[in-house]
Write a structure and sequence with these properties.
The chain has ten helices and eight strands. It is an alpha/beta fold and 285 residues long. The chain has one domain: Alpha-Beta Barrel (TIM Barrel), CATH 3.20.20.150. The chain has an eight-stranded parallel beta barrel, surrounded by four helices. The chain starts with 10 loop residues before the first strand and ends with a helix.
């Protein structure tokens, strides 16, 4: 670790996402944003990951929750205005989805440079997400964009690491999760945002529990990867002394399959397991 034994260890900040709380507890009685945020606090999360508004700002202050924001990265001028808006609402770390799946990689890299520069100018920390149907949808595309980013700036590209998308592209199996998906150690260590959506090589999101309170075999297979990911980050410079993670179990866009426990139920269990993995990782450094 980069700190002495008496120094304060880096902070793990776990943020829940309201989009994974849709239709909870039922479709007809889905909670309001205020009710969701109170539940996030009660469940032990440190913060919330969302596109914020004034209500979110007020509730974060009242509840003592951190705020992670985000936006689309297709238009730099609009994104910069959105960065300012979210900064003024209290969000400093911002997740950005970069352009489209068919965007030319040189254009994507140039846009990423402009977005990161815009963030620096207004005092926020945007990160480019690895995500399907964007410019970073495959490991190869991401690697080239990151290479071009460094060529243009001399710096590493801040990245929101959502390994679930790369996992299904590469058809990984539990025995090689770490080998295949920690192939960018310096870029991982340079970043402050991880989307810890549990995955396997066939499914971008696997259930955490079996609906009866027990961890699923798929999530048990995934947990060692989380620990190795934490160890990888901790061996680096630990930028800002904090790592923001989101147990991002989504309800919409096909992530959630009928018959599984509701993602909000599973996210609460995932938070506890990730905290344990963080403690184990700290002991290994």
């Amino acid at each position: 670790m980069k700190t002495s034994p008496k120094s304060k260890p880096p902070r793990l900040i776990q943020c829940a996402t309201p989009w994974g709380m849709a239709n909870y507890p039922t479709a007809k009685s889905s909670w309001s944003q205020a009710r969701r945020m109170k539940a996030i606090k009660a469940a032990g999360f440190d913060g919330i990951a969302t596109y914020p508004d004034e209500e979110t700002k007020v509730l974060c202050a009242e509840l003592g929750l951190e705020l992670m924001g985000g936006m689309d990265g297709s238009d730099v001028a609009k994104a910069k205005k959105e960065m300012i808006r979210q900064r003024d609402l209290g969000a400093i770390y911002l997740n950005i989805q970069l352009l489209d799946h068919d965007t030319a990689l040189p254009k994507a890299a140039k846009t990423a440079v402009q977005l990161i520069k815009a963030g620096e100018e207004v005092g926020v920390k945007p990160h480019i997400e690895t995500h399907r149907d964007t410019s970073t949808e495959t490991p190869e595309k991401y690697t080239e964009i990151a290479r071009l980013f460094k060529k243009l700036t001399g710096k590493l590209m801040p990245t929101t690491w959502d390994h679930s998308h790369f996992a299904i592209v590469k058809h990984v199996v539990p025995s090689n999760y770490a080998e295949r998906l920690l192939a960018w150690p310096k870029l991982i260590q340079n970043s402050n945002i991880f989307h810890l959506r549990p995955f396997n090589g066939q499914h971008c999101q696997v259930p955490v529990t079996n609906g009866k309170g027990k961890l699923t075999p798929e999530f048990v297979d995934y947990l060692p990867f989380v620990e190795e990911l934490f160890v990888c980050w901790l061996k680096g410079p630990q930028p800002a002394g904090q790592l923001w993670v989101c147990p991002e179990l989504g309800y919409s866009h096909g992530y959630y399959l009928s018959g599984q426990p509701h993602p909000w139920v599973d996210a609460q269990v995932a938070r506890k397991e990730y905290a344990k993995a963080w403690t184990r990782a700290l002991k290994r450094i």
